[in-house]
Amino acid sequence: MSLIWLLGLVLAIAAVGYALGRTRALSSTNGDIRKLHSLPSYYGANVALKSAIPALLVLVVWLVAQPLIVSGVVSSDIPDSAIPEGSSRGLVMSEVKRVAAGLDGAVAAGTMSASYAASAQADMDDVTKRMRDAQQITPEALTPEILTAGQRFRAMVAQGKWAMTAVVLALAVAGAFWGLRESHAEFRARNTVERVTKVLLIAAASLAILTTVGIVLSLVFNTYEFFTMYPPLEFFFGTTWAPSFSGRGGSSELGIVPLLWGTFYISIVALAVAVPIGLFSAIYLSEYAGPKVRAIAKPLLEVLAGIPTIVYGLFALLTVGPLLVSIFGKDGFGWMQSGTAVMTAGIVMGIMLIPFVSSLSDDIINAVPQSLRDGSYGLGATKSETIKQVVLPAALPGIVGAILLAASRAIGETMIVVLGAGAAARLSLNPFEAMTTVTAKIVSQLTGDTDFSSPEMLVAFALGMTLFVVTLGLNIFALYIVRKYREQYE
Amino acid sequence: MTDATNNPPRHKTSLHTVDARTKRRNASEARFKMYGMTAILIGLAFLAILAVSIIRAGTPAFTRTVFDMELTLTQAEFEAAEKQLMKTKAYQAVFIDQLSAKLTEQNVQVAFDGKAIDRLLGKIGGDLRAHYRANPGDLGKPVQFTLPASSRVDGYFNGKVTRDTLVDSRFLEVSDLDLVDALHEAGIIHSAFNWTFITAADSSVDNPGGAGIGASVVGSFFMMIVVLGLSLPIGVAASIYLEEFAPKNRFTDLIEVNIANLAAVPSIVFGILGLAVFIQFMHLPNSAPLVGGLVLTLMTLPTIIISTRAALKAVPPSIRDAALGVGASKMQAVFHHVLPLAMPGILTGTIIGLAQALGETAPLLLIGMVGFVAREYPDGLAEGFLNANSAMPAQIYTWAARADSAFYDKAWGGIIILLIFLLTMNIIAILLRRRFERRW
Amino acid sequence: MYDARHTEAQVDQTETKISAKGVQVYYGDTHAIKDVDVEIADKTVTAFIGPSGCGKSTFLRCLNRMNDTIDICRVQGDILIDGEDIYDRRVDPVQLRAKVGMVFQKPNPFPKSIYDNIAYGPRIHGLAKNKADLDVIVEKSLRRGAIWNEVKDRLHAPGTGLSGGQQQRLCIARAIATEPEVLLMDEPCSALDPIATAQVEELIDELRLDYSVVIVTHSMQQAARVSQKTAFFHLGNLVEFDDTTKIFTNPEDPRTESYITGRIG
Amino acid sequence: MYDARHTEAQVDQTETKISAKGVQVYYGDTHAIKDVDVEIADKTVTAFIGPSGCGKSTFLRCLNRMNDTIDICRVQGDILIDGEDIYDRRVDPVQLRAKVGMVFQKPNPFPKSIYDNIAYGPRIHGLAKNKADLDVIVEKSLRRGAIWNEVKDRLHAPGTGLSGGQQQRLCIARAIATEPEVLLMDEPCSALDPIATAQVEELIDELRLDYSVVIVTHSMQQAARVSQKTAFFHLGNLVEFDDTTKIFTNPEDPRTESYITGRIG
Amino acid sequence: RDNVQVAGSSTVLPYASIVAEAFGENTDFPTPVVESGGSSAGLKRFCEGVGENTIDVANASRKIKDKEIKACAENGVTDIIEVRIGYDGIVFASQQNGPAYTAFTPSDMFNALAPKVVVDGALVDNPYTQWSEFNADLPAADIMAFIPGTKHGTREVFEEKVIAAGCEATGAMQAMIDGGMSHDDAEDACLAVRTDGRAVDIDGDYTETLARIEANPNGIGVFGLAFFENNQDKLKVATMDGVMPSTESIATGEYPVSRPLFFYVKKAHIGVVPGLKEYASFFVADELAGPEGPLAAYGLVSDPELAKIQAVVSDEVTMGGGM
Ligand SMILES: Nc1ncnc2c1ncn2[C@@H]1O[C@H](COP(=O)(O)OP(=O)(O)OP(=O)(O)O)[C@@H](O)[C@H]1O
Ligand SMILES: Nc1ncnc2c1ncn2[C@@H]1O[C@H](COP(=O)(O)OP(=O)(O)OP(=O)(O)O)[C@@H](O)[C@H]1O
Ligand SMILES: [Mg+2]
Ligand SMILES: [Mg+2]
Ligand SMILES: O=P([O-])([O-])[O-]
């Protein structure tokens, strides 16, 4: 039975359980809903959950565990002599698996009988030929050991599958009966269902934690490795970023300071563009614009978030950079040497971030109760005064959230930085000079040509880790600010 | 209550004459409103500039120059070709021979040789071979073929290559353009709408005529299904728990900060995580949209959670009180009342999060979706999720890096398709959001 | 003019429905309810009176654990309903609130249609078998809430588009639609004209036959008219709790007397 | 007990402050106010009475154009204040509302501190030169709003954490802090105990010396106590508008009579 | 898994894509998947171990390093077949209509781009702003060079074969040693590039360099030969030491700036992953990698010793000699 079928069956049992649970609960009070503790649908849901969740959990665990177990058993049975030199047990196992699949395919195509596939031992060439006839991929030279292992593998997989089907279905049915037995008037079905729902909600929330753990884990070992090769002090306080090729005696200077500075500078410029434009757009959309303008302008602005960053990068390189040079360059103020600069990247990134601020803030501003606005208008406040002093403070947490999101995006962006701000790490106050960011360097060090166990490559992980910690600090600060100034309405 | 008289009422003023202070306030009001309008206009102007430049740069991708010719391949030629290592080259040679013969027969007044025709042709051997392998009955019979010309000929037709700027090279010589003109006159080559671009998969760097975005659209589609199917429910569920049920303590603060912080993790780091967890640990296949979708889900979750939480926070507590007061459970109050009211914010988060996910390349680099990947359409759902495929931004990114500038046009054309995809994807969310928007 | 009443009838000793002992409520550091003991009888209307800010709403919200929703609010002491401690960990606040309905001081209709506002409670409690049943419940509740005539033509218009008094009656109708055993009403007639007030009072009187009703009111007249028992709160203390007639004619505490004669506020 | 008043005093013919002619208000298709003509005199308290949902709040909100904020609301007819049409295009609603203050039916304190709630108006209108000035204004307004004693120790606590009646008085204090020429009060005492009500009525009486006050009330007694003129609304119509004493003793329209005697609602 | 999986260098990617496409069109094997992501990332995944869920082939634009071979071995990847597919020429090109940058020497590049140069026998901070200031034959145009960023292997070639050579030729290296530096330090110091904005690192692809050149008439950029040849109508190339870059001059070694390109095959996967060996031999077949093949047509400099390499593939000769 294929997986889809099994899944379908479990769900079908759950669905039937739902219907039965409902009716059973109802009939326990002779159809009087009011005597039930919970709505009939909760009794149904209780049965459905009890039959589906354990069964599906077992199914998932089984699906993960069975291949591991079967491979383990089969692979430990392969004699060492069957493993060619230079190969590995793992590779032989993949051959075994391929043979098993080939046998399956051959049986399906009719070039082998089922019993032949299960037991043929003598003639390797014949087996190979029959598999080839069925358009199966075969090992170049099939050995008896591999064939035996393949057959064993096939048999075990088949058994496992039957066992799994049986166990899962039995669990589903048992769960359904358990749920059905509970379906009587006094049973607190709603509470049970809600408890399960809450567990699901908690599981969803834990995913964020898991992701964080995963990220930290995937960074931390390589970071440690990096620090065994490169002095941490120089990394954290070095003011020069000049990686060179490890083949040449490791003369790299890997100071994070210029990169952090570039990140900070470019993000500030980007936010200086995105926050006012985004916030004012949000205010205009939610407070001034008519429904028609709003219905059109808001989704249009959101398109800005969906344009691939490479387009923004090219826009920075080809349009904004030269434009800025013509104003601030030699012919203008003389502050700018070339088109790639903090300003170029910052402005373009700011454009991309407009919808992050505008759309989210717009929703939050819109959610501020009208009575607050009325209160302010009633005192003779103008619309703008009302917005500035009543609406925005009430919407503050949401707006800060939106700005943080925009800032996060600015910190995480690469393409615009590479094309707009250049790749050179520099520590300068002049926003018309080229700089680069931590993220851009993470990407370039990770995808570069240097050898993968050199500090020049591993530094990418240390950069990632540092950035993670720095932004964590910023977020804690933001949370503190929000807590301090939040105005909770009603 | 006596001191009322100490404070004489302010001088009665006419409503029609605006006093100085009000004038100032009104001016500031007008300014404020103007800032808002300007902000929107700036945003829209940027959008317009970007849109115009995208469309201008991208339209050439939608036309191509094709050869229209009848070809007869004999059984002998077929067998000879199939014996070669580079079979496709042999097919191409047959085509060139027959075209030369035809030109001679038609008495074209331009000097040409096989090499010149080869320079004008795109890579057509693959198409020819595929055709005859699929239809052996066509051998020996004349068959009408429509095959792509080389990218330089394309450039000549859309004005990018001119006789003045062209430098003789092995790719094209100035004299070849006379041949192009002659062929054009003879009706053998002409421009046509480039369906291939919309339907085909990626092609190699020397074959711009065969390149299409279709397969990667499918890849993106499956990825977005994963992202939407996972990040929206998980994100909303997580937000509901954190905002409505979680006890307010240090630990939930930690989670809150953590989620905000996840949003700031560079997307390539999610790629590192995805490679480690999904491919190396869970043994999911390389380059699979399922893996891409999972990685992008992790990346999109913070966006959705942050916006959902903000939206949930904005729902007035009196609504919750009202529901609890009639005996609804907290769960019911949230799902029946609070969630619908928070819907606009949730949908906005989804729109923005998906837009971001759709355009992201960096994490795909690490899980193998960037490069020369999409070659076949998947048959069926399971393959769609599991077979190696590319995604639109990855495709665009690789095209943009290729040397032949014809791919540059394709990259922009791909961006147009991506934006159309994005708009289609968002339209439902946008309409839904409008339905849920209300003031209270 | 308020004649067709059962008022003078059974003030006989019915059993205790709610009994509160040593209840203390804090909002952060503010001590809002100070050691209140009270016994609320079944099938009786109990009025809470007292100056604004004395803690009436706070105490009322303790009785169905609505205070749980205010983060900074802490409740101490015992509150028993039908002899069961409602702050016990085994008690499901949801069931409690289904049993103890509430009309809030500030009308808070759902931003849904009038029909759905009323139908929500019956739906989640499974009080109606089908649509027709539900229609009947909605109409009956709106009629008892004395608002049917005004809204019968706009049942599907949003509840938030009603006038202040209409919203108040809508909330009353919503609360009785679920047929709670105890009904807590926080100034249910504050925005109502005398006629509507009379209708609501009639409703309360009628509810008393089966249920226990607690009403917060600022109108001494109203308290006198509808209640059998009256509790007088002052600065978070329960100053006096007795038969209504006793309180209004012969209060024991000087503060009560000053209040009902209009001397302290 | 409500003695120290200027009530019987000047009901003499002062000049007209507000005059409304042929006012019609629609909410979408609902015709909420039907052709109302009314003249509100300066230095007078005018009471609007009428059953719940008859359009009192709606009409009140027309007088300072608060209806502008409701999308579906359309107002027709002329409303003149000091002889100037407030719906004229030259009129700035902001200036209008500074001149015509309002207390809403549902208390709506800002989610700010109590102090900032009061100081908000004076700040935007520039009524205080400095912090000390503002402190004076805040204290005075809170005192006049009869809430100073309750909040003087928690001026920097959020206004939303007050009890219902306290919020109502806070909103009254907030409205008078800007010293409007006309004060519209929509059921300002609905959540107040008798003492607080008396204090607010005293305030109204005092305000009348300089300003024009319009008050919506459901309490006939209150209307009789504080107002010199009374308008009776019914189903969107202005049924009768006359001296308060006349209305309550000798109404012309049978509907008015039925209402004040408690027969129609 | 029934297809060959390849990952690695973005420089090799174009050639690999041509081969992969042709392999799919001309054989019955499925088209290999070729991922890009950089030599280092590709080798890293290559060395993660043997088995179905690891890649079969890693492309690299440099030779695998000893450290990497060691890391590979630790993970059980011991038998690696190294296949050199040809050479990548590195050229200096500028806008068609820009100043006449037609001939450079390493010394010119060093003088233009080093932070310290020798002027009148003394080592001083680079004072030059125009090319003509140190070489009258060069145009009087502002110095502006777009050089590969430090992530690129091309940077290494550029530093070693151009800058370091210039350093020695101009006498700067000697000046440094005379100034008290050790020989090694001086060698390192020679590779430095000025940081005042006249030498711009490009972390992106050649298309980015091209875009920068187009936006900057005075700019001179570093490109791969294939890229330049594909864009001859936009770019003009300069000679180095008087040699014009071309496939011939690079193949013979006359033109100094070039580097070999490789791919690495896991021997253990041969025979397990269908089509792997066929792919490797297809790649280096004369029809593809030969001077007349499509790879050369695209711009790869064919390996003059292609026959040897074909033998390596067909005999599955692993690195370090073993069979
Ligand atoms: N926003 C609105 N949308 C639609 N109808 C409304 C709206 N506000 C009020 N109405 C309707 O207009 C009529 C008049 O309402 P209004 O609020 O003026 O009554 P009211 O006299 O103030 O009543 P109450 O004493 O109950 O406050 C009512 O029928 C009401 O339902
Ligand atoms: N959420 C809150 N946070 C802080 N203090 C509160 C909160 N709610 C009420 N209080 C305070 O608790 C006290 C009692 O308030 P409560 O609302 O119970 O008064 P009340 O008797 O209902 O008054 P009213 O008649 O004005 O409604 C008041 O001093 C009030 O300011
Ligand atoms: Mg209260
Ligand atoms: Mg009203
Ligand atoms: O991608 P590369 O390793 O060739 O730079």
Automatic annotation (TrEMBL), chain A:
Pfam families per UniProt: BPD_transp_1, DUF3708
Keywords of this entry: Cell inner membrane, Cell membrane, Membrane, Phosphate transport, Transmembrane, Transmembrane helix, Transport
Major location category of this protein: membrane
Transmembrane segments: 43-65, 162-180, 200-220, 264-285, 306-329, 335-357, 390-411, 458-482
Coiled coil: none
GO MF annotations in UniProt: phosphate transmembrane transporter activity
Gene3D superfamilies: MetI-like
Compartments (UniProt record): Cell inner membrane; Cell membrane
Domain ABC transmembrane type-1: 260-478
InterPro entries tied to this protein: MetI-like, MetI-like_sf, Phosphate_PstC, PstC_N
One GO-annotated biological process of the protein: phosphate ion transport
Membrane topology of this protein: Multi-pass membrane protein
Superkingdom to which the source organism belongs: Bacteria
GO CC annotation terms, alphabetical: plasma membrane
Similarity section: Belongs to the binding-protein-dependent transport system permease family. CysTW subfamily.
Record's function text: Part of the binding-protein-dependent transport system for phosphate; probably responsible for the translocation of the substrate across the membrane.
PANTHER family membership: PHOSPHATE TRANSPORT SYSTEM PERMEASE, PHOSPHATE TRANSPORT SYSTEM PERMEASE PROTEIN
NCBIfam families: phosphate_pstC
Protein name: Phosphate transport system permease protein
Species of the source: Tropicibacter naphthalenivorans
Automatic annotation (TrEMBL), chain B:
Top-rank lineage group of the source organism: Bacteria
SUPFAM superfamilies to which the protein is assigned, alphabetical: MetI-like (SSF161098)
Keyword Nucleus attributed: no
UniProt organism field: Tropicibacter naphthalenivorans
Official protein name in the record: Phosphate transport system permease protein PstA
Subcellular location: Cell inner membrane; Cell membrane
Gene: pstA
Alphabetical GO biological process terms: phosphate ion transmembrane transport
Alphabetical UniProt keywords: Cell membrane, Membrane, Transmembrane, Transmembrane helix, Transport
PANTHER family tied to this protein: PHOSPHATE TRANSPORT SYSTEM PERMEASE PROTEIN PSTA, PHOSPHATE TRANSPORT SYSTEM PERMEASE PROTEIN PSTA-RELATED
Any one Gene Ontology cellular component term annotated for this protein: plasma membrane
Short name of one Pfam family: DUF3333
Region: Disordered, residue numbers: 1-21
Keyword Nucleotidyltransferase: no
UniProtKB/TrEMBL annotation, chains C, D:
InterPro entries: AAA+_ATPase (IPR003593), ABC_transporter-like_ATP-bd (IPR003439), ABC_transporter-like_CS (IPR017871), P-loop_NTPase (IPR027417), PstB-like (IPR005670)
Domain of life: Bacteria
Pfam families in UniProt: ABC_tran
Top-level enzyme category: hydrolase
Example of a GO cellular component annotation carried by this entry: plasma membrane
Molecular function per GO: ATP binding; ATP hydrolysis activity; phosphate transmembrane transporter activity
Matching PROSITE patterns: ABC_TRANSPORTER_1, ABC_TRANSPORTER_2
Topology in membrane: Peripheral membrane protein
Coiled-coil intervals: none
Keywords carried by this UniProt record: ATP-binding, Cell membrane, Hydrolase, Membrane, Nucleotide-binding, Phosphate transport, Translocase, Transport
SMART domains for this protein: AAA
Name of this chain's protein: Phosphate import ATP-binding protein PstB
Organism: Tropicibacter naphthalenivorans
